Amino acid sequence: MSDQDNSVNKDTRVLKTYKEARLENIDSLRRLVVDAAATLLQEEGPEAVTVRKVAQQMDCSTKIIYSLFVNKEGLAQQLYLEGCKLLANEFEKTPQASDPVQHLLNLGEAFWQFGQRYSGYYKLMFGGAFADFKPDEESLQGTVTAMRQLLTLISHAQEQGLIPEQYDTESVVRAVWASLHGVIHLYMGGHLGDVQSAHAVYKHTLSMIVSSLLPDR
Questions:
Q1: pLDDT at 16 over 70
Q2: What domains, with CATH codes, occur in the chain?
Q3: Which one is predicted more confidently, 50 or 12?
């Protein structure tokens, strides 16, 4: 066999159609735009995330961004989903204590830390920072996925008889989440003083929630 034949046999390139290549480029461009918007969100806050400012960050026209996301709300949805991934990562990194009380305390603390570390995402996702943006079904499913650790913990505690099974698991999770979110929201609104004071209120609230859910532990 000639060297030329060997060369042909060793060529493992995968040819792509124009449509495939174009879609790949569009996905890459969308990713770059979301990254630029995320940088603005984290560094300057939700109010800085406008199509015009993102376009300036990308050094492109606003038309390109509108063609990719339709409007600001479309871009906000992608940021929301990015925030869900970050929240899920925070929960995944949380130590899984064998004691459900400690595990719940750990997850509660992780939620506080997410609000501090990613305050821009938090305000977008849970603080109504984008008045015209309402999470759609995909976004809400992303939230459920992010909160899976908490759902699993509550479900296991119910199976072990530690939390009455008469309460729906998702309803318990929503009650816990709503209570903790209320403290963070009040802090972000300037109602609970500095971060240390707000954190103390948060930990006290978390402790009362855990004691109420798991009184015999």
A1: no
A2: 16-69 (1.10.10), 71-213 (1.10.357.10)
A3: 50
